[in-house]
Amino acid sequence: MSSPSSAASPPPPPPAEQRRPDPVRFGIMGCASIARKLARAMLLAPGAAVAAVGSRSEAKARAFAEETGLLLRHAPRLHGSYEALLADPGVDAVYLPLPTSLHVRWATAAAAAGKHVLLEKPTALCAADLDAILAACDAAGVQFMDATMWMHHPRTAKMRELVADEATTGDVRVLHYYRMIALSPLDIPPYNLLPVDVINSLFSFRANEEFLQNDIRVKPDLDALGALGDAGWYSIRAILWAVDYELPKTVIALRNPVRNQAGVLLACGATLYWADGKIATFNCSFLTNLTMDMTIVGTNGTLHVTDFVIPYEEKSAAFNMASKSKFAELHIGWDPLPSKHVVSTDLPQEALMVQEFSRAITLQVSILKAQCSGLAGGRAAMIGSGRGSRVRVTRRQGN
């Protein structure tokens, strides 16, 4: 006869490889406006949690946590200095939205503290500064990602698929990126290449007087790159994305950039040239109407998207694709008509970015655990999705 205590025992826990990994614990360093958007993204993203907020005072950190809902949802620890945030052992990764002039100091400090780095754009004031940040992350064995959100939208992957399809798009040789600023005919160089393959991009916003006088993006000691760093970042990134990150051979600035009294760029542009004949032109500005337009024209097709940086809607984003287009009879229309592609997503692109960064960190931790347990040895490496994540782990020799 069985005793009352001999009821069926609970099932054994699932094997370790089947258990859901612990969320990546983020610390937010600074309470900039863009950090509010990322705080929301971290509330939405699976596999992420906000463990701490650091600011120049604990009162500012508390006000930020209350306003964003973090205090109620994640109850983060509040730090009154950036140093205290980096010393927090309960933080795995740091999101850093500070002014660009502070990126080298605090991104390298975060890496030295063993924290993975999600760095707001522009990542640095010059290539040497970015090299220093990347070197610090490599030396510490931590992950690095720049916070370019549109790269993580599933629409971007779908557009990449079609741009890479020679039958659909063809060859891309001439690329133009404009941010809605008037150009005289003399500003536009002649293009004699055949076939003429083009990418046009428009992404601008008209800043108000308060922005133009007081925003950190117009202050030489905070964000000295001005419109080039804030707006031009997207255009340049899109150009490099379109050519699969092949660097140009020559870059020539367009004439007559607009600067404020402190010398910070409010509008500027440049043309990029590649050895094989590709050409790209971009222009960026704080002075014209909000527009986000990108057109990629190849020998066989044209891709057109009108909200490439921030989609009109969070849950879906569209683009048009025309392939092998020609005039209809009597030139009264087109044949065939462009097709519209709509890509849906359950999460906004900034949450997808946080999710992918968290996955890269989790994968790195899993590889390290496997190495330590003798399940893997030597050097392990993983290149992530086409949107930029990477994991690199090197097993240290000796003790």
Automatic annotation (TrEMBL):
One of its GO terms (molecular function) is nucleotide binding. PANTHER family: OS10G0403700 PROTEIN, PTHR46368. Residues 201-303 form the GFO/IDH/MocA-like oxidoreductase domain. It holds the Pfam family GFO_IDH_MocA. Belongs to the Gfo/Idh/MocA family. This is Uncharacterized protein. Residues 1-23 are annotated as: Disordered. SUPFAM superfamilies: Glyceraldehyde-3-phosphate dehydrogenase-like, C-terminal domain (SSF55347), NAD(P)-binding Rossmann-fold domains (SSF51735). Residues 24-145 form the Gfo/Idh/MocA-like oxidoreductase N-terminal domain.
